[in-house]
Amino acid sequence: MKNIREVPTECTVTEVGEIPSDWDVKLIGELGKVVRGGSPRPAGDPRFFNGSFIPWLTVAALTTLPESCMEVTETRGYLTKEGSEKSRILPADTVIIANSGATLGVAKILKLRCCANDGIAALIEQRAGSKEFLCYYINTQTEYLREVVAPGNGQPNLNTKLIRELPIPFPAEDEQRLIAEALSDVDGLITALDALIAKKQAIRQGLMQQLLTGRTRLPGFTKPWREVLLGEHVSYVKTVALSRAQLDNESPVRYLHYGDIHTRSSVTLDAAHETMPRVSSTLLRNAGRLQVGDLVFADASEDPDGVGKSVEVISVPSAGVVPGLHTIAARFDKSVLADGFKAYLQFIPAFRNALLRLAAGTKVLATTRSFISSIMLTLPDIDEQRAIALVIADADREIHGLLVRLAKARDVKQGMMQQLLTGRTRLPFKESVA
Fold it and tell me: Hydrolase: present as a keyword of the record (predicted)?
């Protein structure tokens, strides 16, 4: 990382907070002309849309870009020549700002000449300032901008007046470029980690498709797989249905809510060490206690991806953990389903497809005890199950490690932005000589 130096002792309090006395404050409107894109009307008219004359950028396209991606290099469609005349053509290397939708207030640099819809504002004819520095600072102000937006067409809409009047800390442009370069280095790391995680996740998915179906066998395993009716090898632990309002953070007993199964990324539950909701023993009545190896399903999902979502319990605290609202706690015979392997039951195509078929037609896609018990699966023996689970778990651990690195890189970037964009920490630079 670039060397840093101490902030000058003299600072000035401004509308953007305390900044070094050798910095200035500018309004965005002082740096160039703020304009909005334009959408040809009527929307979808073939005279204007689905052409080949010029790329067409919508604010919705910005939602697909990673936060660490500063540049917009492609669009989703094209306009005809007639359509371009009813829109606004933006030149390449233009700062754009989303003024509506989920990305409201997010700034990026447009790297191609294109037309944009009216959900996008742009700073054209820019006379001063580093585009990259400007984007990084604007992106620290998205929460503020969302708080002060003017309503438009039934949804928040950031108008050009608010953008023009947004104050920006303004160091010398050489320093702006150095700050942007430092932040860009971290963005590069974040982008690389994102790509590596996506690659490792694809490899894991391929491993599961091969190993959990027997298409690929691990070395040393040749025994034929056998059919197993799950209902002949399972018992169910009694659940207790409580609302979030009945839970707390102090009681000794942990409580597993179905919502916490749906939102977690890990397929295992380390209940002895993870932060979990708690429940008073006075509310538990005759609820069962979970044991290591139990597989707990969420019994309802609003979308197909959540059907069969489950976690395998790998540890329990001394005070116990209970299965809660909308869960099914299955205790399988360990001579039929090995500990560790059960966590991946949800990824076996035959299992998921059976649950989806059985859930079809229900208002909310449901999983029931009878559904689970009715499923016939072809499974390897216990030793092969354990070996398969170890291979997939290794892939899971590698991905988890990368996710931890990604989270730390994002934290580093956040800290750098707070320091560098306010002048609390300075990068060494030589001021240009006029």
Answer: no
